[in-house]
Amino acid sequence: MVIEKVYYENKEILEWKWASNNKLIPKPFYTSCFLVDGLLIDAGAPACINDLREFITDELNEKEINLCILTHTHEDHCGGAQMLQREFNIPIYAHEKAIEILKKESTYPEYRQITWGEKRLPVKTKILPSTIKSGSLDYGFEIFPMPGHAPDQIALIEKTQEWAFVADGIQPKYKMLFGASSDIQEDISVIYDSIKNLYNFTEHMKNLKIFISGHGLYKGREFLKKRLREINELHQKIHRLYKEEVKNYNNRQRVLKKVLKRAFKRETVIGKLTKGDLSTMNLIKSLLKWPL
Length: 292
Ligand SMILES: [Zn+2]
Known about the structure:
Helices cover about 35% and strands about 20% of the residues.
């Protein structure tokens, strides 16, 4: 495995990054847990349980984690939750839509097992209130719904510090991995609305810091504006290309392939490896489903 620790904001925030070192994965594909004043945001992947335990016992005082909040139900964010609860007695919170899903064990396609571990163990979680306090420093986190990547996706916002922990709610660039089958069903129009809502919500934050799982820190609301612009342009472009190509072919599959070729040249390696489960084609289909 590959583990990295990154500190931000005068060491107030610690990002614990974990990736599998499986040879089948071309470069480390990280998931992150963020620790802020006793609050652990996310619980890593099932395959990182031992490393997470070691990190807590060897590098943290056990008392340093007062609670854990799961940002959504994907296995790379809640894999260690059962262990944290059972072994460290840490209360686990999640969005109300996530509670029932998390109660059951979850299995998923093989490519995700290679990346994140065999299965996610069940965990009993508490419903997140709309705001939550962490440890001694009196930070208050607002729970901000950010559906699109997952229906139960949330962000945590600390207004006075101008921090937004968005997990997978925003990607640094919308170009490739996009889920449509299994339990990763993304919707680009909902993602767009979520980013727009966050942009509006953070209106008075001059120094907004956005923390994205696996990618770290992005500064300023301009980053959100750029994502909105990028998605908007892609939306227009894909519709335009589809309109052009639909005149040339009767077969929808052919049309879509042509659109993909013109917009992105080719499907990503991951798109092929996952048999389209996480692919650029899914992004195109989601953009087309979204009326102009
Ligand atoms: Zn996710």
